[in-house]
Structures are given as C-alpha cells and as structure tokens.
Amino acid sequence: MGDTGVMPAPDTDPARLSDRAARPQPAPSGVARGPRPAEDGVPAIALDGVSKRFGRELVLRELRLEMAPGRVAVLKGSNGAGKTTLLRMLATRLRPTRGRARVFGYDLQRQGDEVRRRVALLSVLGGNYAMLTARENLQLATTLTGLHGADVDAALARAGLAAVAGGLAHTFSSGMKKRLGLARLLLLDPPLWLLDEPFAALDEDGRRLLEDALTAARERGRTVLMASHELERSVRFADAVLELVGGRLVRAGGPA
Amino acid sequence: MSDLVAVLTIARKDLLQEARGRAVTVATLFFSAVTLVMMAFAIGQDSELLRRSAPGVLWVALAFAGVISSAQSFQSDLEEGAFDQLLLYPVPRASIFLGKLLANWLYLTVLGLLMTPVTLVLYGARAGGDAWLLPPTLALGVLGFSLIATFYAALTANLRAREALLPVLMFPVVVPVLLAAVRASEAIVQLSNAPLAGSWLQLLGGFDLVYLVTCTAIFHLVVEE
User: Fold this and answer.
1) pTM to 2 decimals?
2) Could you report the predicted ipTM of this complex, rounded to two decimals?
3) Do A168 and B16 touch (CB under 8 A)?
C-alpha cells in the first residue's frame, strides 16, 4: 500500500482504494442529517462485483472497489467506458444489475434515501430548471434537502453568479449553467461529491472556481469521485486514478 | 423537512414554471376552445342534441387538454436533467408524485371552471338550481383524470414515442372516471337530479381514492430505473 492509498485487492479483480483515511472524516453537515454508520472505517464507496446491463450491453463488469472517506479519485476512460453510468449508479439513479454497492455503509438499493442524504451529483447537463431563476433553483434544493437557512446568495456569489441570481436559468450559457450546478454542490456540500466532467463548459475563471472548491472540499474531508477527460487538471487534486475500459476497472492507482 | 412541504414545494415549482413559460396554458386553452367549437359544428343545429351533448363534450375537451398539460409537466422537467436532479434529493418518491399531481389538478380544475360556462353558453345548456354541484364534480373528475395522467406521463416521459403512447395507455384506464364525471354532469345540467348526481360523485370519489392509493404507492417503480 503506497502513500496514494491504493492497493490491489489480493483475491479480487481488480483493486481497492485503501480504507486508511489519512484525512479527517467528513463532518455530519450538508445534506447528511441522518444517522451515520455506527462503525469507524466504513468505506465511502464499496462496490462488490457490481455489473450493469442495458438491454444486451454490459456497461459495467464486476466492479470491485473500496474508497475511503476523504479521498479524491479521478475516473478516467474513453467515451462509453461506463464512467457516467457508475456515477449515476452511486447517486442512486441506476440500479446495479448484479453485485452490491454501498455508500458510507448504506446499500444503494435498499437505503436510497440515506445514500441521497450523503451524495450530490454534478451532471454534465447541470440539472437546473430552465424557467426558475438561479436563486429559485438553489432555494428548491435547500427546501427539498431540509437545509433551511442555508445562504443561497453566498453560494451564488462563490460560483460567480451573484449578478444574475434573479435571472432565469434558460437565459444562461452552458458555462453559467455549470456554475449554477457548482453553486448547488457548494450549498449542499454533502460528504460524497460525484462530478461528471466538471471542467467541461467552464471558462478559465470558472475552472479556477472549481479548483478552489475541490481544494476546499479536500481540506474539509469530503470524498470526491470525478469523471474527467481533463486528466492533467483533475489529477492535481487526486489521491488516485481509476481507469475504466469497456466497463472493467483495469487500474486503481496513484495519479503518477 | 416534512413530506407535505416537499409536496407543496414541487407543486409551486411546477405552477411557477408554467406561469412563466405559458406553453401549456396557450396550448390547452387553444386546443380546448377548438374542440368545443368543432364539436358544436359536428353536432349541427339541433338545439336539443347540442344541449344533451354539453357534458360529454366538456369532459372530452378537458381530457384532451389534460393529456397535453400532464405530458408537458414532465417534459420541461426532463430538459437539462432537472428531473434527474429532483430525484437525487432525499425526498420520498410519493411526495414528488403528489406535488406534480397537485399542480396538474389545480391547473386543470381552473381550466375546467373556465370552460364550463363557455360550454353551457355555446351548447345552450343550463345548470339550474343544482349548479353548485358542478365545481365539486369538476374537482373530483379532474382529480381522477390527473392521477392517471400524471402517473402515465411519468411512465412514458423517457420513451421516444411518448406523445403517441401517453393517450393510448391512459385513456382505457381513465374511462371509468370520465364516465362517472359525464354522468354526474348530465344529472346536474340536464336532469336537475341532485341525488343522482350525488351517487355518481360518490362513485367518482371511490375511483379517485383507489387511483390515489395505487398510483402513489407504485410511483417509485416508475421513476426508479
């Protein structure tokens, strides 16, 4: 086991991200209001032989992985390798066809609400309501996650959207929509961040904002799994790089 | 956060979007008006036949408008992954269904309240002394229709042929509701028979209860993959 916290699982294919948590455990803040798993050392992500099939196509194949809380990992792979499918599965939007997946000890299929209290997904599309303002989109998020009193305007300001807080999302450019998704992530700040191509559509200023957010997330002990084609930029924050090829996890190692 | 807050938040969000976009309002108002006028032309100048047709035509126009509004309520959600994001919040799936149902129901009830006097005038019908029964008939009938329409709109939202499939799937199921609603309306408008209308309304309430319990209980199966 190296400093990266990555080691091959001895009798499993293919690998394990060590549960040795070098950073502090995520504080029970953000959307995670429910009870935390009783045991210490519970992995943030645990996949045990997880496969996913769409019709005849096997998109994920026998994934085995453990990722400790407080780790940042980059998920790489070509288009169609299964990165988005894995992220959507961890966010409870897809069910594993086979195998068992847990987030902070909670089973994705049987304890979906507990998982959703601890996870946020920044998707490629942004996930915004076009006919709501930026502020209303975030207010919707805080109301539905029970984060009453959360500072929506501060989150918008951090994402560089203070000037357009009252603007309808459908008038935003792709980059502004991505920033709005980022503002929602900063506002909810759950223990597990799932980011799907987070740098895409952002301008240089937006990319720096995201980098600052990732740095702060690391310091607060958040667990981050991000799918990205911009490896040079994303691995700067990563403890490990996971590589998917044809739905198989072929590599789980340091970012070198 | 209580489930009721989630229901009201989601309903408010849907109504707010519609108030701003007005896409459904324009489409349903125009479509309903065209349906009422075309049916009047098709029936002809027989004033008795027109009068007797009024309740049925009103509910047919409302049903067509309901297909448009319920389909669109999910369609606008699907743009830019907003519905996906909604499902990522730790909110019971039943609350999401009830929120969208509440918005659809309120919208169609208001539409029905607007269309009823227009229909009565256009078709030469009169509600008489039992006119007070029309609003509860509309509310119960539209509730049953909205329940089925919202459920099937969610079911077909991700399908390529959703526009064609939604009416094909939902109209066979919605027939008992439409039948009871039309019969109750007939008893009020043509027969001035409040007890008969009350019987149909009881049956309508029964249908609504069954659909409400069933659709709410199994909605998670529709939106979960």
Assistant:
1) 0.87
2) 0.86
3) no
